[in-house]
Amino acid sequence: MTATQAANVKNYALVTLAYWGFTLTDGALRMLVLLYFNEIGYTPLEIAFLFLFYEIFGIVTNFLGGWIGSQLGLKVTLYAGIALQVLALMMLSFLNRDWAQWFAVLYVMVSQAFSGIAKDLTKMSSKSAIRLVVPQEAQSSLFKWVAVLTGSKNALKGVGFFLGAALLSLFGFERSLWIMAAGLALILLTGFFLPSGMGKIKSKVKFTQLFSKSWEINILSLARFFLFGSRDVWFVVGLPVFLRSVLGWSFFQAGGFLACWVIGYGIIQFLAPTLLRRFNGGQPPRAVTIQFWTLILTAVPAAIALGLTTNLPPDAVIVVGLMLFGIIFAFNSAVHSYLVLAFTDDDKVALNVGFYYMANSAGRLAGTVLSGLIYQLFGLVGCLWVSSLFVLAAWLIELRLPDPKPMPSVAWKGGDGD
Predict the structure, then answer these.
(1) Mean pLDDT, residues 177-202 taken together
(2) C-beta separation of 410 from 145 below 8 A
(3) Would you give the distance in Å from CA 260 to the centre of its chain?
(4) Contact between 27 and 154 (Cβ < 8 Å)
(5) Structure pTM?
(6) DSSP secondary-structure letter at 197?
(7) In the structure, what pLDDT confidence band is assigned to residue 220 with cuts at 50, 70 and 90?
(8) Which of 183, 175, 187, 158 is nearest to 31 (CA)?
(9) First CA to last CA across the chain, in angstroms?
(10) Calpha distance 260→159 (Å, rounded)
(11) What's the CA dihedral at 30, 33, 36, 37 to 10 degrees?
């Protein structure tokens, strides 16, 4: 192994480690906040509003984060995100139950704003960095490495869900936040070992360049909005509240089940390159690939909704339905993550990825708010029908997506060793 190859491996490992550490706390924090405030009597819509700033500031961060990363380097944005998460955790630990509810909600929203900025700075930086640290002679494995990062991230987020529920049960709300902040602070030390100029470009980027000029990236971004909105419209608030309030599951049962789902979802993303290579005869994903998996996904939330309106056991309907949704959604997400890099150039990777994940955050925002509102008005079944409509919208948009042009830097090479 040459010195350059060794440096790339080291950089990949450091970026992945930082992302993994952040992801654990992000999943745990989401579950902590959701279960804790549901337990003390907040309505589904009030819980949804707790995450409002998390998603809004995620949109802003993705819009500006690509520009910041291209000017200051991805190392700065990556570790700034981790530091902000530590701040958000410590801030939330000072929450006082004796405060007026309106002030407590506002306080949590502000802390979640910092967490939202942190999450999208970290995600944008990590996924952009992978595009740069995979050596040119090994770029045929780009989809594989993106899937490894994304799949492992989602598996660890699932572990984070369980961790959050376990910490809440064992240590309570405040101490759980301190434990996570201390662990994440240690991750900051890895920043000393990454090169400072990763992703930094020499030329100045005008404000108008922050808006993607690529037709393909625009189509992918709009489809991403509806795809992730379709998941969060029933998964973020409606499903956990349904499990606790309607089915009577405990903290460990609800948190453990959602954790297992996200872990399984991550495993499917990890395996996506191998599985899709078999489906596609060794060829890289094309437009028809994402269209096929999105169309199949359209039927799943509708089937779950129909199942919940029959005499079938609701527990079984939820478990089986969520497994199917997770498998098909994981294929969609993995192909999306590959295509956004296949449609971009090295010198625009931070800008395009930032713009793309801005749409992702916007979809999560819409899904989060609708999850609380629709659940409060129409229950989980209403959330599922809206989810199906969102997936259908994503499919219709993807019909206008062209195939990525073959490029040496992002080519997919078939074979057992790929």
Answers:
(1) 74
(2) no
(3) 16
(4) no
(5) 0.71
(6) T
(7) confident
(8) 158
(9) 18
(10) 8
(11) -130
